[in-house]
Write a structure and sequence with these properties.
single chain, 255 residues, alpha+beta, Alpha-Beta Plaits, ten-stranded mixed sheet, 6 helices, 29% strand
Length: 255
């Protein structure tokens, strides 16, 4: 019996999120169903973090204990041969017995995609949020920079557990120009529920002409600003880092 660390990728469009919810189609349910075909017997796999319905990933991390007599590459092939087209195992490796995909993580990285066109583009709509008119690049950059550092993000989300801390440290918060529009890159030690989507929404508002100081005020005073939510389809979990090991999982995100 060995502990395997799995890197998962999925198109979240047709999933009701990652975490198992009874018989509802979630990523966890689909992957665990296939694992049982290979002899896996645990009650549930562990994973780095939950993603909402419609959110995508190419760097989700999960662990399973499995009595597997073949190579890790064979395990990847066996799982992918059984999984549906909208989820796959990118990598499988034997991990140390005490490794925990959530509690051992030093940071998580998300990307959020915007596209800027005057009319809706169906081929982009599945993976990005359409914004029009075009955003002000300088206002967008200023808004992103305000999030860097250690802050109380209670205005932008809630802790997973009642009474949990809402303080988080953001290491990277920046917008990168893409051929279609913009990609927001944000890395933090951890995220609150809905935190990234609220951060994106208020930045888009600021870059569209709204009061830029609201972000700084919300972070300084910790008041419940609760801005709107950016749509789920633009959000990607791209990387989870452990003890200094950082590996980008979405090669196309670098373009």
């Amino acid at each position: 019996m060995a502990l395997y660390k799995l890197i998962l990728a999925y198109d979240g469009t047709d999933f009701s999120g990652f975490q198992r919810q009874g018989k509802t189609r979630t990523v966890q349910l689909v992957v665990e169903t296939v694992l049982r075909e290979l002899g896996w017997q645990q009650p549930a796999m562990l994973f780095a973090g939950r993603t909402d319905a419609g959110v995508h990933a190419c760097g989700q991390v999960a662990t399973i204990s499995l009595d597997w007599q073949h190579s890790s590459a064979d395990l990847v092939n066996a799982l992918n041969a059984r999984l549906p087209d909208d989820v796959s195992v990118i990598e499988a490796n034997v991990a140390q017995a005490e490794f925990h995909p959530r509690y051992d993580a030093s940071s998580r990285t998300y990307h959020y995609h915007l596209y800027q066109l005057p009319v809706r583009q169906p081929l982009l709509e599945r993976y990005a949020w359409r914004i029009w008119p075009e955003l002000d690049p300088e206002r967008l950059d200023r808004a992103a920079s305000r999030f860097i550092g250690r802050h109380d993000f209670c205005a932008f989300g809630r802790a997973m557990k009642k009474g949990g801390s809402t303080t988080r440290e953001v290491y990277t918060s920046q917008w990168m120009k893409t051929p279609e529009g913009w990609r927001y890159e944000v890395e933090a030690n951890a995220f609150l529920y809905h935190m990234v989507r609220r951060m994106v929404f208020i930045q888009v508002q600021a870059a569209s002409g709204a009061d830029e100081s609201e972000i700084e005020t919300a972070l300084r005073e910790g008041r419940p600003l609760k801005p709107g939510l950016a749509p789920a389809q633009g959000l990607f979990l791209v990387n989870v880092s452990y003890a200094g090991l950082t590996r980008e999982r979405c090669e196309d995100e670098k373009n």
